[in-house]
Amino acid sequence: SGQAIVSAVTSGSRQYFLGTDSAPHDKRMKECSCGCAGIYSAPVALSLYAKVFEEAGALDKLEAFTSFNGPDFYGLPRNTSKTVLRRSPWKVPATYTYGLGVIVPMSTGNTLEWLPSDQPEE
């Protein structure tokens, strides 16, 4: 069940780690007769995971789930760059523009409570 998955990933066990499968296909390639599968989750993934971990009372375990457990499992170095999550509501845009078109993100139009930033805390 969904709750069993939430309990597992928020447990702090090092065997669980983030693995998004973001699919940033152009809107024209998704909304056609042989559309590309998947959903563009990259812009919202951390915000949505933060909500789940917060609701489970496990925000202190989010960093390991998103950043440490995966590289440790595969014997890879941990990233040195940082992403800060701030409790700051933001509205997911309808689209993101890139050189050749637009991409529609997951949760478009919704307001999320956690804002990811690459800027250090103030």
From TrEMBL:
<keyword id="KW-0665">Pyrimidine biosynthesis</keyword>
<dbReference type="InterPro" id="IPR032466">
    <property type="entry name" value="Metal_Hydrolase"/>
</dbReference>
<dbReference type="GO" id="GO:0044205">
    <property type="term" value="P:'de novo' UMP biosynthetic process"/>
</dbReference>
<dbReference type="InterPro" id="IPR002195">
    <property type="entry name" value="Dihydroorotase_CS"/>
</dbReference>
<dbReference type="GO" id="GO:0006207">
    <property type="term" value="P:'de novo' pyrimidine nucleobase biosynthetic process"/>
</dbReference>
<keyword id="KW-0862">Zinc</keyword>
<dbReference type="GO" id="GO:0009507">
    <property type="term" value="C:chloroplast"/>
</dbReference>
<dbReference type="GO" id="GO:0046872">
    <property type="term" value="F:metal ion binding"/>
</dbReference>
<dbReference type="InterPro" id="IPR004721">
    <property type="entry name" value="DHOdimr"/>
</dbReference>
<protein>
    <submittedName>
        <fullName>Uncharacterized protein</fullName>
    </submittedName>
</protein>
<dbReference type="GO" id="GO:0004151">
    <property type="term" value="F:dihydroorotase activity"/>
</dbReference>
<keyword id="KW-0479">Metal-binding</keyword>
<keyword id="KW-0378">Hydrolase</keyword>
